[in-house]
Batch of 2 targets.
Target 1
Amino acid sequence: MATPLEKWIDKIAGLTKPARVYWCDGSEEEARRLIEIGIKEEKIEGFPVFRDLNHKTYPNSYYHRSHPTDVARTEHLTYVCHRDKDTAGPNNNWMDPEEAKALMAKLSSGCMKGRTMYVLPYMMGHPQSPYAKACIQVTDITYVAVSMRIMTRMSRYAIAKIGQKDDFVKGIHSVGDFDPKKRFIMHFPDDSLVWSIGSGYGGNALLGKKCFSLRLASWLGKREGWLAEHMVVIGIEDPRGNTTYVTAALPSACGKTNLAMMESALPGYKIRTLGDDIAWLNVGPNGRLYAINPENGFFGVAPGTSMKTNPNMMRTLKKGTFFPTLFTNTAINEETNEPWWEGLDGERPNKLIDWQGNRFNPGSGNKAAHPNSRFTASISQCPTLSKEFENPMGVPISAMLFGGRRAHTIPLVTEARDWTQGVFIGARMGSETTAAAVHREGILRRDPMAMLPFCGYNMGDYFNHWLSIGRKLTHPPRIFSINWFRTDDKGRFLWPGFGDNIRVFKWIIDRVNNRVGARETPVGHLPRPEDLDLKGLDISKEDVERLFSIDKEEWGKEIADGEQFFAQFGDRMPKELIEELHGLKARLKGRW
Ligand code: GTP
Ligand code: SPV
Ligand code: MN
């Protein structure tokens, strides 16, 4: 008797008509074979799906060039198909599920003709974790199959775990013919199904990542009483030998990967990595919030990564294990066959092939690597990996941070008075846009909890859900706002960032452990000047003042913008957050 899983695979194969169906086991030997196929047989626009890189300096690494129209997430083609539009909310594109399925069936009919359909069984989360989920994705390109092996725990175990059940997490993926007009990323929360066609790009095609672990999982979390968040998870070891676990939500390309493995500029402090993109947060039996990272790898932004900014990522990329490391849409150094990107250490090599496959002309004003070019590497290769990474229960969280790119207004660090004010800070979050999604860069947009593109239901309901989680916690984490990106009038960053961010973390863990006081302001608690450890840092007193300055006029605009953003959620907006907004307004008007 066929299992529900086997029947489902037959049904998809009947629709998409692949030449063969291959069930992956996630082994090392299989990854090698898939890469061989990608090198020798599969092509995108005449270019092989994989190309060998220099294995002496970057062991087991391969290059992938995507279709030139397919280099970032496409939020305008991403839909969340709840039965009714209001459940999806103004923060999501919506289509009626039946209509969406009919459209996808039409686009998928025969879309795998002549190709292989790879069946990928994988777990999100440690297999022994009560919070883990067993998933299946099909795809018709080796790049996605190999990427999923790096990013998830892929093995036949997931098939055993699914057994006779039919409510497993399902993903259908085909690159189709890469036609942007036929490109859609559709989510069906009621069926635990993601259906994606026309794109091979990470967030659109590795369906365990944003599509399942955030959009569908946030909806599951709403129904089951937990949170799926766009967050880093780290442990901070202090000179006393204590470790404080912290999460931080930052929008795409705003520094999560950097933060996750930061090399501390302060002696005695060490960062321990648990995750750089996604956290699943559960209320533990002791009333504390526990975090797991459901992923097993990094899909990080290449440009700007160097021994200076992120040495531990450079070490991860060069470690070389039985997991391959992939580079997508970077440039290639023609002489050494190494990947290259803007911001990498050393001089720019003389002979570069740009991300579109052409000889790079430095006079052209173009970038050699695409600004959203990325690497894919196993988390097991990270030298700062926490020994708690494989703990099925996760780690207890003492502080949660919300941040973004804000040239003005938002101080370097602010502490919320309590959970409700913290949720208000997260809900009001804004950030200047980056190259991680297709849109104009550098525009300020509201991005609550860094989840605007990833929340799988109405954000008004999402804010309510956050408040309800707070009510279940007897020892809630403290909540902070951070901003590494404040600039002066000339656009120069006021804060050195990167390894020096530990100075902010030192204050945060001192606050969590009730070791320091704070300065009360209308916008929250700020560090007293003497409590921020700036030893050995070349920063002027004026710059420090500017990092913490609160400008009434700028805050007036900030509140008006936030108010307008909240208004679109109508009566789904929690009254607690509206009260916070009025409170903030009144405090700023008063004397302080
Ligand atoms: P996704 O993978 O897209 O979710 O993003 P991410 O948040 O992991 O992004 P990542 O860490 O790769 O961010 C990269 C960008 O942030 C690069 O342009 C870095 O130079 C910049 N960045 C990271 N940390 C800092 C910092 O402390 N200060 C400044 N000024 N820039 C930073
Ligand atoms: C992001 O854009 O936030 C990413 C990369 O982490 S992707 O997986 O493409 O979404
Ligand atoms: Mn991300």
Note: The chain has a mean pLDDT of 97.
Target 2
Amino acid sequence: MTSMHKIFRAVIMGPPGSGKGTVSARITKSFALTHLSSGDILRANINAKTELGLLMKSCIDQGQLVPDDVISRLILSDLRGLGQCSWLLDGFPRTVPQAEALDDACSVDLVVNLNVPFQTIKQRLTSRWTHLPSGRVYNTDFNPPKVSGLDDVTGEPLVQRDDDSPETVTRRLKSYETQTEPVLEYYRCKGLLQSFSGTETNKIWPHVEEFLRRKLSSLK
Ligand code: G5P
Ligand code: MG
């Protein structure tokens, strides 16, 4: 693992199912960063039946974004709780007001964007299986669990996400186009955006790893 002397703040972006969770797991394995996924945090709230989780469930199940003020408050408070450490944000910010709220709270060093075609994504999401407590993701074609239906680490059951039905995936891609693509432009203008295009995580990953290694060594 590459250790970092300087605090390093990164964001990973990309359409739903582009591999943000999969690539984030590889990044945290190779680099000393804390991974924070807004979707995992929301699903943990739904699972634990918190007031927030119950309020947000129908919004998420329908493939709509939850309100900016709710998610910004949640994520920024989690970031404050992390204190002085390096982190990787996955799934936040997803709108320009969220990006502005993040900017007001702290500075971001770089943004990795996974540019994966929508057609590829639709096929992937219907065969995704998730371990809800940890956020670990599997795919019956790409990275199947060692034992079908069970998490490799805990042996607990895997579930399919309620928002992975074909109609909801279409809605999530639409809201990505209208609400999240402007965030790419926001970071491009700031000179922070680095995009990686492809249809396979295994081909994209070496480029992401090389890019991060170079960036991190230039910060030391
Ligand atoms: P999430 O949880 O942030 P999305 O929609 O952004 O959800 P998602 O679905 O979690 O993103 P991902 O993390 O980009 O996708 O992708 P992944 O899970 O790693 O990979 C997808 C599947 O493809 C997996 O099964 C994986 O194994 C497989 N795979 C990976 N690489 C390959 C490959 O090369 N080949 C193949 N064949 N398979 C591969 O947000 C969920 C909801 O929460 C709310 C919204 O309602 C959102 O819809 N939300 C927010 N609302 C407002 N603002 C925010 N900031 C919000 N954040 C969350
Ligand atoms: Mg994810």
Note: The beta strands are 9-13, 34-37, 87-90, 110-115, 128-131, 136-139, 193-197.
